Amino acid sequence: MKIRSSHFLETGSRTIVPTLLVVSVFLLVVGHNAPGGGFVGGLLAGSGLLVVFLTGGGRAVEDLLPVRPATLIGSGIALAMTTALGGLAFGGSLLSSGKLDIDLGWVGKLEVGSALIFDSGVYLVVTGLVATVLLRLGDTEGARR
């Protein structure tokens, strides 16, 4: 039996999904100095994937993601672990925070903290896990086995 998607949900998702993804990246960026961060941003990005899943199924989620969810999870874990161990490499302690100042010329200075890089890894892991769960839910052949 094929389930038809709601026309209202399909139309609304064209606005809701990009908005959720932009706000999730915003929460990721401001999270190390304000409420939010990689986990909350990843959950919000996962909510956007859920809306895509509800409108188009697992195939739509696969089409939206640039890589497989396992790649997101693996790269997120690698990024978070590398950042966490980076403090040890520079004579500090595990998970010690550092800051890099980048001069962008007439645009100004950009300060990138190691907390942002660590949170980016967490963001990738959470988003990849939500995508994996959604793709497993949408796997009709796997459900029949």
Note down, in words, how this protein is organized:
There is one protein chain. This protein is mainly alpha-helical. Helices cover 70% and strands 7% of the residues. It is built from five helices and two strands. Strands 1-2 form a two-stranded antiparallel sheet. Strand 1 (99-103) and strand 2 form a beta hairpin.
Question: Which labels suit this protein?
Answer:
145 residues; mainly alpha; two-stranded antiparallel sheet; 5 helices; 7% strand; elongated
Low-confidence stretches: none
Mean pLDDT over all positions: 84
Number of strands: 2
State the domain count.
Answer: 1
Structural class: mainly alpha
Number of helices: 5
Helix content, binned percent? 55-70%
Shape: elongated
What profile does the largest beta sheet have? 2 strands, antiparallel
Structure in a nutshell:
The protein has 145 residues and is mainly α.
Please render the helix and strand layout as text:
Layout: H1 7-30, H2 38-64, H3 69-89, E1 99-103, E2 109-113, H4 114-137, H5 140-144
Antiparallel strand pairs: 1-2
